Amino acid sequence: MGTTDKNASIRSPGKRPGFRKSLMTLAASVMLATSAQAATPSTAEVNTTDLAVTDDTVTVGILHSITGTMAISEIGSVQAEKLAIEQINASGGVLGRQIEFVQEDGASDWPTFAEKSRKLLRQDNVAAIFGAWTSASRKAILPVIEQYNGMLYYPTFYEGLEQSPNVVYTGQEATQQILAGIDWAVKEKGAKSFYLLGSDYIWPRTSNKIARKHIDKLGLKVVGEEYYPLGHTQFNSVINKIKLKKPDVIFASVVGGSNVAFYKQMKAAGVDFTDEKPLLLTISVTEDEIRGIGGDNVEGIYASMKYFQSLDNPNNKEFVAAFKETYGDDMVIGDVTQAAYLGPWLWKAAVEKAGSFDIDKIREEFAGIEFTKAPEGYVRIHENHHLWSKTRIGQAQLDGQYKVVHETEELMEPDPFPEGYQ
Amino acid sequence: MKSSSPLKWFGSREGLYYLALAFLLAVILPLVLDPFRLNMVGKYLTYAFVAIGLVMCWGKAGILSLGQGVFFGLGGYCMAMFLKLEASTPEATAIQSTPGIPDFMDWNQLTELPWFWEPFHSFSFTLIAVIGVPVLLAFVIGFAMFTRRVGGVYFAIITQAIAAILTILIIGQQGYTGGVNGITDLQTLKGWDIRTDEARTALYFVCVGMLFLCLFVARLVQNRKLGRILVAMNAQEMRVRFSGYDVAAFKIFVFCLAAAFAGIGGAMFTLIVGFMSPSFIGIVASIEMVIFCALGGRLSILGAVYGALLVNAAKSGFSESFPELWPFAMGALFIGVVLAFPNGLAGLYRSYVMPLEDRLFKRGKAEAQTSAEPVATTASAEKTDDYDPMINTYSPEKS
Amino acid sequence: MFDGYTSSELMSIFAMQGFAGLSLFSVFVLMAMGLAIIFGQMGVINMAHGEFMILGAYTTYLTSSFFQSYLPGLFGGYFFFAIILAFLICAALGALVEWLMIRHLYHRPLDTLLATWGLSLIMQQAYRSIFGAREVGVDLPEWMMGAFQVTDLVELPINGLFVMIIALSIAVAVYLLMYRSGWGKNVRAVVQNRPMAEAVGINSAGIDRATFALGCGIAGIAGAAFTMIGSTGPSSGQAYIVDTFLVVVFGGAQSLIGTIISAFGISQAQSTMEFFLSGSMAKVLTLLVVVGILMLRPEGLMALKVRR
């Protein structure tokens, strides 16, 4: 990746050279570390940094909001992470050790996230943290986790512009979602004009910035760009504007409760998404959100993501069945939930490859780690700590599920600092 | 009214309370707690600044502001802007398209530092701004409202709206403010790394020191004639006005004082926690700050400190063991404090612990010295502070 | 600003924006009506007002699920049951809350604010425990979906019209109740002079309870109506609280007409600005203007003439 050097010094310049070197020596270490762990290695051997590892257990942390406004979104991630841990334990654990977890509540409050991550790292000495959902909570955790050299597995699709040696981003960064989505709309649907709409915070704004640049490059037109405060519930004015400008594509990154209001009001205003135009392409509405919005309100919209519950592959069938068995038949699984499920598995793979729980040793092994049993099919960790993954376009159905209508042929390369899009 | 020499004051009962608090914060807690927990206590203490301000402004003068988070946030943002600029040296940000400006500005295509960020290169300006900006806004709001005799419920709702406006504005203008993520990744203060355990512990002591400074200022105000006028205003605004006092000026003063305390608290918060975000400005945060004050006892500045400590400690404790129960406990706390213990912890202390103390104290004193004079005076000073709000404070809104 | 639009498009803009403003207006009226009664008439600040609305919304959700499962034939009409049920449940809870909590606090308006805030926290968490943290989707019967096609560009959403009709009926009903009924006369008597009202034999405690229950009941209806256009989740109620209070205060707390006028003014201002500015800035500007006017004219638009 051409921009690695540039990115490498974005955070904590003092720490970076080692990290960069580790990326360079990566190929070599991949070879070395593939020796299998037949017998359970001794604790002294796999844990030289005082992590909470005993002869038969290892403790990890789960840090999400289970109270407050973000609880709605984060609960799916907690469930997925617990499921993955359970499955790993059933299959013999990590390096012969059963995983135990300490769960902390971020309470939808950013300092609480920072405080709890500090607790997890300093008091519980966890070997990994699976957690955070919003960008703000990740930003709050980041300095802590870098200071105490922990490792965070972050599940949400997000705006990019970040690459920490102490975070593994298991969701997509913005370009993976957006470029594929817009290309698809242009190629398959002949879209010429776009209306960008989002909630007013960093992720939609950055996403729309990337979208706008890409649309400009394709020589097409953005006819409107609009942001509403989080929690806003009155979209009549923007719906009128959309009707007037008649864009081919409405590119939506509205989040939370606003979504419900937006789609209900669109539907009520006589916009039928099952028609050819306007086409609505969202990067924020997963199956989870549709539960709240109602399938009849979003029927026909398109979403650009890496995972849909309806994906037809054996991994996913197994995953969906296990998830429903554990949490009930009425569960739905969205993109982020799946990404959260990847976290513990990727951690396990890295630990076993490194033959150690030590963060620094694991970090050396990240690049190139694969997870072939991923419900989304196959993922691989890029040297920038993001995942190579396919992007899919799904069309929402009346029953609240997406039907996959398109899938990128190759894995998309994660590019958190996309040149030409900043 | 008061003991004339400072030494005597420290020997008085009130002085002993202050000494006890100082002993607890500066000696016991640092000895008992590890740096991690101590840092958390430091964070709780930053809220105590707001609570002290609320005691003055709400408890004494009867002005309930639901927007104290605004001043807390402004103070915090001023400090955060300074720290962010220090962290964004051209060397550290060399990879940005415009080196030398904070990272979030670069992401938002800003190519130069906005004008209102410029002065925050200077530490002395920042220190002035931490108090000055909140006070200025408080003055503008206070002047507009109090000279028109807006008070009570209306004032509460308007301050709440201001909190909402500022939150939306900061989130919306993310190129200038860092948006919903806030200003994060603050590293050094004048070259001193504030993220280490030693620095955090040092900052804790700075925080305790500042807290006592504010406590003494508050005490000074409350024990002067000024404080009496505030209390009188709360009980019988008309009579105070008819006695020739400019009620609005007193209200503006105490509101600005509370804003200044909140600003200092916010700045300490930024230093101790290491970032600032709009979630401390909003309505929910602002109302929570009121409960710190109410739990401690809305008339007791020392109670406010204990209130802030206890509520936050309970919050951390509860949310570690029973996260789902915390909102219930918090809600019950609000209702319980209002319905059953309107004078909070300080009120309980006065009615249950003090009589016991009196007995011990008097006996000891009588044996030690024949002149019981200091005891009598402080007791009477306490007494006047301790008038019962149930009887005459919360008369219905005059219209 | 109007470049590139034909005159017929401009006509449509104004027609549709007018309608958007009107539907925002009816939302505001619904939100504020219950609060105007509780706050304006009783001086109680009910910070749990949003949570009462959400209780109405959850009632609607449960009713719709019930009809779907047991009475699918009557599903088209479930909404009317839901509205009545929402009113009754919220009013009953309101009466209970008044009895347990509010009646002890009539002399301390600022304390009602804190206590009801506590209540709102408890209610939110209760919703979260009972209904789960996720938002619930309320299905609408077929006839409430879609829009009237007036011209090529102008379409009027049916559920928007429906919300308007509910808002209008409630406004009229409240007016009749407050100003044309014996009970309303009693309420106003208690508001204006409690001791005198008691002296002529009005049961002021009973009046208080009924007034509070009425306000909460109306909040429930508002919540039921909002399931058509907004979201129903444990914390959705909080989003409404600032707007609601501002509408009531801006209108002049003790005047129901004032509340309606202020709802109209704020909604029109906001939807007009939303059309020309971006959504966030429109919101900030609207709030700023309202706060600014309140600073200049603290008694609100329509005030009882009293000396302060």
UniProtKB/TrEMBL annotation, chain A:
Entry-linked InterPro entries: ABC_urea-bd_UrtA, Peripla_BP_I
Keyword Lipoprotein among record annotations: no
Residues spanning the signal sequence: 1-38
Keyword Signal: yes
Gene3D superfamilies in the cross-refs: 3.40.50.2300
Pfam families listed in its UniProt record: Peripla_BP_5 (PF13433)
Keyword annotations of the record: Signal
Protein name: Amino acid/amide ABC transporter substrate-binding protein, HAAT family
From TrEMBL, chain B:
TM spans (from-to): 15-33, 45-67, 123-146, 153-172, 202-221, 242-261, 267-285, 292-313, 325-349
Top-rank taxon: Bacteria
Family matches, as NCBIfam families: urea_trans_UrtC
Region (Disordered): 367-399
Pfam families named in the record: BPD_transp_2
Protein name per its UniProtKB record: Branched-chain amino acid ABC transporter,permease protein
Record-linked PANTHER family: HIGH-AFFINITY BRANCHED-CHAIN AMINO ACID TRANSPORT SYSTEM PERMEASE, SLR1201 PROTEIN
Keyword match Flavoprotein: no
UniProtKB/TrEMBL annotation, chain C:
Keyword tags: Amino-acid transport, Cell membrane, Membrane, Transmembrane, Transmembrane helix, Transport
One Gene Ontology molecular-function label: transmembrane transporter activity
Bilayer disposition of the protein: Multi-pass membrane protein
Record field: transmembrane: 20-40, 52-71, 77-97, 158-178, 212-233, 239-263, 275-296
Lineage top rank: taxon: Bacteria
Segment forming the signal sequence: none
GO biological processes: amino acid transport
Protein location: Cell inner membrane
Pfam families: BPD_transp_2
InterPro entries: ABC_transp_permease (IPR001851), ABC_UrtB_bac (IPR017779), BCAA_transport_permease (IPR052157)
Entry's family note: Belongs to the binding-protein-dependent transport system permease family. LivHM subfamily.
PANTHER family: ABC TRANSPORTER PERMEASE PROTEIN, BRANCHED-CHAIN AMINO ACID TRANSPORT SYSTEM PERMEASE PROTEIN LIVH
NCBIfam families named among the record's database cross-references: urea_trans_UrtB
Designated name of the protein: Branched-chain amino acid ABC transporter,permease protein
